[in-house]
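Lecture notes, part 5. Sequence design as translation. It can be helpful to think of inverse folding as translation between two languages: the language of shapes and the language of residues. The source text, in structure tokens, appears below.
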């Protein structure tokens, strides 16, 4: 069984995407279902358990999804698999209106055949598993002993189940930017895809993980060029050519202007408040308040994280990446 979208689902997503783009409805909503995490990653502002955390329930997520009408929903955290009701949460989101494209973001430490299969059966289209290094250095960076070994055993086994929906996610930092090709090769070895995003100091205030020097940027530029060649040969690198170039551009410039946080994408916190992104945690009671209080005057360009790179593109760029069957139903210009 595969959780890849069918032509009919692809057409529905394309239609909704164009409509949301024109009407100002969000393309992507990220539900941070918990801020607790079983890792304490060096490039993240979260880590550890939160006692007594107020959390939305599955029915709340179904209601929100109907009201917000996004093209894609990301279930994230913290570590979402810490929630005992994560499968009912996924079911509620997916069954709210037969959409949206549903992504689960996890560090993978709690991922196993049983919950992976159950989540896929409930309609999760993509499981994004974080990977910072292609070896045991991943454990030290995530401060979780044995994590890489566990992923090394588990991810290939999950890939063999035939859902074809696992994508490794690697945030490019000064610590790992020389490992990008090895990370891509590890993904290929495990039988899964890989996507890259850019680290930003906005999350932790630590600039030491930013790629800054001319020497480092030259090396990163060469690695991006190699990734593009590898993408042509294997097809398991999920980023588009323009996204990889924009990731390099972000590091070269130190910023990426024209952020659409709060409009095309935003985050719903565990208790239901709205925030523009996970890097700006000023809370709003509603999306309307967030658009008025933040999005209309937002001048931030301090990140190029994954959720932004996929939702911040122009309509032309969005349509260019659609499958051919979806392009055929759109009006010609």
């Amino acid at each position: 069984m595969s959780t890849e979208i069918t032509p009919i689902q692809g057409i529905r997503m394309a239609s909704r995407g164009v409509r949301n783009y024109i009407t100002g409805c969000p393309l992507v909503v990220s539900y941070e279902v918990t801020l607790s995490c079983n890792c304490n990653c060096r490039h993240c502002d979260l880590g550890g358990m939160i006692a007594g955390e107020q959390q939305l329930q599955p029915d709340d997520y179904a209601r929100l999804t109907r009201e917000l009408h996004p093209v894609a929903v990301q279930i994230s955290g913290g570590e979402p698999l810490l929630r005992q009701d994560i499968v009912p949460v996924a079911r509620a989101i997916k069954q709210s209106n037969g959409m949206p494209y549903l992504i689960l973001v996890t560090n993978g430490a709690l991922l196993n055949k049983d919950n992976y299969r159950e989540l896929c059966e409930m309609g999760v289209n993509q499981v994004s598993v974080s990977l910072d290094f292609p070896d045991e250095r991943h454990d030290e960076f995530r401060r979780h002993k044995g994590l890489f070994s566990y992923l090394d055993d588990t991810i290939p086994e999950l890939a063999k189940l035939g859902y074809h929906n696992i994508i490794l996610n690697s945030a490019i930092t000064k610590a790992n930017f020389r490992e990008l090709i090895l990370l891509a090769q590890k993904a290929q070895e495990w039988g899964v895809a890989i996507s890259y995003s850019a680290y930003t100091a906005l999350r932790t205030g630590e600039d030491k993980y930013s790629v800054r020097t001319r020497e480092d940027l030259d090396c990163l530029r060469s690695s991006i060029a190699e990734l593009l060649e590898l993408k042509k040969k294997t097809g398991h690198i999920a980023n588009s050519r323009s996204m990889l170039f924009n990731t390099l551009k972000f590091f070269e410039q130190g910023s990426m202007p024209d952020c659409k946080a709060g409009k095309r994408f935003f985050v719903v916190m565990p208790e239901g408040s709205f925030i523009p992104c996970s890097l700006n945690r000023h809370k709003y009671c509603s999306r309307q308040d967030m658009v008025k209080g933040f999005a209309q005057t937002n001048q931030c360009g301090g990140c190029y994280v994954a959720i932004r790179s996929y939702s911040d593109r122009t309509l032309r760029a969005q349509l260019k990446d659609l499958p051919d069957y979806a392009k055929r139903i759109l009006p010609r210009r």
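The translated text above is only one of many valid answers, since several sequences can fold into similar shapes. The two ends are 37 Å apart (CA to CA).
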